[in-house]
Amino acid sequence: MNNKCHIVRDLLPSYIDDLCSNESRQFIEEHVASCHVCRDVLHTMENDVEVSDGIEQKKRLEAKKPFKKVAAFFNAQRRLTKYILITALISLGLGICFLANSMVKQKEYKAEVTKLEMVEQEKADIMEDVFHILGSSNEVTKLEEEQLLEVFNKYKEKLHLLAIFPAADLGDWVKENPSVRKEPTTIFPIEYHKAVSVIGSEGIIGANKQIISSQYDLGTVVMANSKWVIQYEYKSSYEKTVERHHQFKYYGPSVWSFFQLPILLFAIFSVLLIVWLILKKHNNHIKDVMG
Ligand SMILES: [Zn+2]
Fold it and tell me: With a threshold of 0.70, does the pTM exceed it?
């Protein structure tokens, strides 16, 4: 090892780190080209630096790992936030569609209810007409029967049979069914052989014992005053309307039932929107912290 070798060895670390002057670089390169000992030393030192670089790299990666985890979590959370917003908007859209649909349905229902309310009015009108004809005598006269037929014909599209019973002949039946004194009542039909007069689509039947009542309570309406009990049966073709009227009167849906679905969807939208706003704020905060 000559003097030059010593100088080169001193300069090698700076040379590897690329910190020496151009003159020194030239001097080293010329020397190592001819001196295999120094060349070997240079190679060894370069390898060491590479190895330590590798270790450095690994350390940097290790250091990055927790950061990567946080970033992955953050990204997942951002995706979740996005999906929540999408779901909220879908709920809002569906809510609006169902609201429009509910409004149409409710309007249709209201129109039907108005139409069906006529059934109620009609019941009262028929009874009023009949009671108006029947006088104070205990018998139904021929004239009265003719007038009853007129009433029947007025409603012949809807009525099947109209019957007149003297209240006295029914004994306790009227007492047992007090509602018939107050208003036209749908009730299980009274047997026709007790009637003094029956009118049907073929005209005045009189007191016909052969008529079999419909056995259908919703299709039969009865009303009584102190003297007379009036009963009529609806035609089976009109029974659907009568049933529908009965359904809506006693089991009709409330207004809210039409809007349950849109209300539920708007509630979901509101909750998701609040969750989204909270997550959004949280995400922005993390973004600020992470830079
Ligand atoms: Zn040398």
Answer: no
